[in-house]
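Reader question, answered in our methods column.
A reader sent in the components of a multi-part assembly and asked whether the whole thing could be modeled at once rather than chain by chain. We filled in our standard form and ran it. Here is what they sent:
COMPLEX SIZE: two components
ENTRIES:
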Amino acid sequence: MKITFDWLKDHLKTNLKEKNLLEQLTNIGLEVESVESLSSDNQLFKVAKIIKTEKHPNADRLKVCDVNVGEKELKKVVCGATNASEGLITIYAPPGAIIPKTNTKLEIAKIRGVTSYGMLCSESELNLSDESDGITELSKKFEKNIGKSYFSKSKSNLIDLSITPNRPDCLGVKGIARDLAASGFGRLIASKEKKIKLKTKQTLKVKINKEKGQGCSAFGSCLIKNVKNTESPQWLKDKLISVGQKPISAIVDITNYVMLDINRPLHAYDADKIEKGIIVRNSKSGEEFTALDNKIYKLEKGMCVISDNKGVLGLGGIIGGTRSGTEFDTKNILLESAYFDPRSIRNTAKKLNLDTDAKFRFERGIDPLSIETGLKKAASLIQGICGGEVSKIDIQKIESYKTKIINFDVNSFENIVGFKISEKEIQRILTDLGFIIKKEKNSLKLIVPSWRPDISQQIDIIEELVRISGYDKIKTIDPIKDRSKSTLTQTQRLFHFLQRAIASKGYLETITWSFTDQSYNNHFREAGKEIKIVNPISSELGVLRNSIFSNLIMFMSKNLDRGFKDLSIFEIGPVFTGSKPGEQKTVVCGLSAGKKSRLSWIDKERNIDLFDAKRDVVQTLNEAGYNSDQFFIDSKTPNYYHPGKSGRIFLDHKKDKVAAYFGEIHPNILKKIDIKTENLIGFEIFLENLKLSRKTLKDQKLKFSVSDFQKSERDFAFVVNKDVEAQELISVISNVSPNLISNIKVFDVYEGENIPDNQKSIAISITIQSSEKTLNDKDLEKINNSIIEAVENKTGAKIRS
Amino acid sequence: MSDLKKIRDEFISKLKGKLDLAELNQIKSDLFGKNGLVSSQFKKIGTIDVSERKKFASDLNIIKDELHDLINFKINEIEKANINEKLEKEKIDVTLPERSFVRGKIHPVSQTIDEISSIFSEIGFSVEEGPDVENEYNNFTALNTPDNHPARDMHDTFYLDEKKERLLRTHTSPVQIRTMLKDKPPFKIIAPGRTYRSDSDQTHSPMFHQVEGLHIDKNINMGHLKGCLNYFIKEFFEVKKIKMRFRPSHFPFTEPSAEVDIGYEIKDGKIIIGEGDQWLEILGCGMVHPNVLKNVKVDPTKFQGYAFGIGIDRLAMLKYGINDLRAFFDCDYRWLNHFGFDPLDVPTNYRGLSR
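And here is the structure of the entire assembly that came back:
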């Protein structure tokens, strides 16, 4: 909502300064978004009079003018306007002035050999109107202002307010003035209605159809006959221009003015173009009309239209049609002032994707009792400017406005707000805001003003009171430092632990969008459901991600393109399994590219591989409290991993839920995405699949027991079939004598010479130690034998001699 | 001259010469070997006349020690010299680079979330979460924003179905609804998380982060709200004093509602929070609307309280001088490395939020 202090002063008597106004507006919830300070620049534009004109010696169309700008010497100005003539009072811009329209700074310039000191301006150049034919012509009244600045200082400051959607009343200058007055900023000036004689009858019949979903509950109108539509007078033009509106014609300007002034949208029809009267009805499916924005709208069933015998004239409360629009030659007009239901307005405008000033106001709720006031105010202005006879006012209604009454408990204010104001002050504020108050025994009976659709219960009254009293009066009550419930749940703690554990292994944490490119997502979706966004930002962000890999790989590729070769990144966040709330999982997803020890003078460089990722995952899970000795690992992984070089981890042999995947990203995907790196390794840890330990650290740390008896290390080499996994051997060995055997380590895997085809040798080192005694040779021999026997029996291995 | 003296003098003079390790060992063996000169003298002790035996033995021992020590000293000297010579050769350029290491980093948004949680933890808030996909009811209707409410226009919502029943939550406020439906009052929670609006330009990202706050109990009023936010902002920006302004605003789910501005100034191109006469809007808040409480079956005549919503990304930008919101989600290695935090820098109450 754009206003000026000057316009506010039509409704507000105050001696306070604009600076105070801006502060106060924000303080009472009418936030000042911006103040366009045109005045300082505009002060340079002076009223001036052309004393003499001469033809330019070198150009037929140009004139050289001697201009009185209020200084001793006349200024020589070159001008091309045809209306530049001796005696004309106009507006002069000196060198240094910035022309508002073009935003260019004037300089002393030679124009075809004649030096011009400044410029005479057209209305268009000053953003006063679209009038660009010739320079501005001012009336004789301005003679006394020659040399003075054309724009008065106060006039030009445009204040843009951000009005919250609950305050339609403040979409009119008067409403803002009322709020300001209630807050002690000046006094509200009572509107004076100019009395006009309403003699004739309104002869155009208006009918509101009583039908289901009728969006119009009241339709007021009057006929004004024999008008002469002209350009608006200067004061009206100035007023509209001052808030950034473009003057069109007196009738349109007046309806706009009334709308901006008291938030009462009106519509003027050319009465002669209406066939036999007005019918307000629901539209039929497929009906069409051409609106004032020159677009043809095809209507759906049930939209509120103003129509006549021939068809649709306009969409009620949203936009009028060209067929019945007023023109400069319009003789008879029908002025409409109606009430449209916000919900109906909103639905229609949304469906047709239409946004107009009227729609913006009606959807927020117009004062239902302003129908007559608006008509009278506009009619009297029209009569004053365009002449004509105004008919009596006709109001058709299918529903009457019901007054809202609230019983207000005075004590509730302090209860919610924390400070107290006197009942007297409460009554004063509410009265100033337009409430009618009846004092009852324990409460105030409040009649809510008709222009406040936002107020319906006690809490709304409290808001009004604290808003007007000032939020600065709210005391600051310091919080108590007390905690009765733990801040994080166990799952949340695990989330944070995993996040930092992965980062500590050299991964940069990223946060990427929850949506992604469908084509990338498809690489990692497997059989997962594709979840489409109906209205995405762009088609590349059209689906919710089924995996974090799609985004990570995209950004990894970008970073590789930037010239970084060896990178590890990760994200912890949601992936989606369906479009219902809760159909999501939390995943820690990491991606590493390139080499280890690239260009190292000391270490041998090698491609990053799956055992790097496996270490990061296993170590992280281990740090998070999961015993890696119990992990079960196999090679069944989703199809976006390399089928032979990837694995999945279960927390134990029960294989309940997959804790994590790790491995090379499938080479086919790398090829399709065209990512350039030596190797690309990823992992995924599934937060919800990690069972939460019932033991806290407190419980885990209770007992400390170690053995100080001598330990022995024994090495074994087994020859097994190629498809036997190391894990199997380890599992067999650890079960042989769990009390004595620890630290089972695979230290060599060998295939080739001396080993039969399809077989491999696995060398394992085992630590044997008792917690009860030092084992003698006989004991050790026995354990050795049982290890060999168990491994041979259960895995088909043969000990290598 | 006795034999002993002869042996001593002969070998002392021998040992004065420049000898290598082998020669020394030879001498050692000549003297102290099984049949060495000194060793054989010891064997003679028994044959010596009793009257002279004691003196002979004593002299022999003195000579033995003298020669023995001298030889050992010489051997030591040579060994030391050898080691020194060897070490001299082993000298390495220690300015060569160490074995390479990589540093991981925590994203500034994650760090900020941890900071926020740490601050609110101190005054008794616990952390709640909600799903990113919400139904229309939780995101709007239950929050007193019915279908035809113009406030819905301010949320450019991503929908997942044509009927507009499922959407990506536009704010973290639906967590209020979920929390209150799930439990009984009192409630004292914060809910950080991802939020989505179909808005994308220099200052808007289609995904951003918010933290919701909710405190419902008996007799919680706007003073408590002011106190809580005042405390939070002071702690978060790690300043002693903060200039804060509460200004009336409107949100359908709170009433009275407020927007909070903090004072700032620009010094040497950097934003200084808490000073100056410029205002910066950082959050929206208010007293939870009775309609919302009714929607979640909490009796508004018995319970009341406040809620607030803060943009986490914006807080991080202000605190850490980050200019571009879009960069948060661009995953540029250089940016992550520059603005990221060491994983060991866990914000805590006792250690402080940041180093």
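What stands out: Chain B has two domains: 3-90, 108-339. Chain B touches chain A through 90 residues (CB under 8 Å).
Send us your own complexes using the same form.
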